[in-house]
Every structure is written in C-alpha cells, then in structure tokens.
Amino acid sequence: MPSTPAIAAVPAARPAPAPPPRRGTRTAAGPGKAFPNCDAYCPPASRRLEEQGVTVISCCVDASGKLTGDPSIGQSSGSARLDEAGLKCAKSGSGRYKPITEDGKPVAGCGKFAVRFQIK
After folding, report:
1. Rounded distance, CA 120 to CA 29, Å?
2. Alpha-carbon span 94 to 58, nearest angstrom
3. Is residue 26 part of a domain?
4. How confident is the model at residue 96 (pLDDT cuts 50, 70, 90)?
5. What pLDDT, on a 0 to 100 scale, did the predictor assign at position 25?
6. 20-79 confidence digits (pLDDT tens)
7. What pLDDT digit, counting tens, does each position of 103-112 carry?
8. How many distinct structural domains can be found in the chain?
9. Which residues contact 16 (CB under 8 A, 6 or more apart)?
10. What distance in Å separates the CA atoms of residue 47 and residue 39, rounded to the nearest whole number?
11. Which burial class, exposed, middle or buried, applies to 21 when counting CB atoms under 10 A from its CB (0-12, 13-18, 19+)?
C-alpha cells in the first residue's frame, strides 16, 4: 500500500493588531495678528474708576477665522462694564481670529482667550 503523507494541523495566523489611532497636531484658536487692541474698548467709566480685570471670552470660529456665533463670557472679570468691553472687542475681531488647526490645516472650532484690562 502506498503511504500517504500525514497532514498536520497548523493554527491559522492571527491578524496583527490594528495600530493605535494617530494623534494629529492640534493648535488652539485665538486672536490673530490683525486682531484689534482691546484696550481701546475699555469704557471711560472703568478708566475713571480704575477698574481692572481679566475677562475670559468663549467663541467659535470657522476655518477662515470668522466668528460663527456670538462670543460669550467664559469667566467674568467681576465688572459688567469690562465684560461687555471684552465682548465688543471679540465681536469686532471677526475675520481676524487664528483658527484651530489640525495637522497644519485650519478647521472650524471653539476656544477661549483672555482679555486683560489694566491701568497703565
């Protein structure tokens, strides 16, 4: 009788695990180079009263740096006048924001930035 070759069971190769997701480089949005000087928006009454403070502004911009909605107060300075001045400055800067970038490409997104009002 002719001999038949033995068949050996070989386990199937397991697929390689998927590589971890690539983390891209992301930069934050904020005032760009041509953004207005917010000191010019400080109310005369606040100057007379020597009010100082930092207003944190929250805003969303498109990939070209234009506001996509009204900015809002992320954190108050403690002065309604200074907060309102910060909002006016933020609104006037539409189109002059530095947009968020992902892997070097501008994208729409939201961020926060501080406006400091201080006596000089």
Report:
1. 28
2. 13
3. no
4. very high
5. 82
6. 666 678 788 889 888 999 999 999 999 999 999 999 999 999 999 999 999 999 999 999
7. 889 999 999 9
8. 1
9. none
10. 10
11. exposed
Report the Cα 11 to chain-centroid distance in Å.
50
Q: Reduce the DSSP state of residue 38 to 3 states and report it.
A: helix
- Is 70 inside any structural domain? yes
Residue 120's pLDDT band, with cuts at 50, 70 and 90, is: confident
Q: Could you identify the residue written with the tokens 């924001």?
A: 97
Could you tell me if residue 7 is inside a domain? no
**Domain assignment present for 112:** yes
Find all residues with CB under 8 Å of 101, minimum gap 6, and list them.
Answer: 25, 26, 27, 107
- By residue range, what is the domain housing residue 47? 37-117
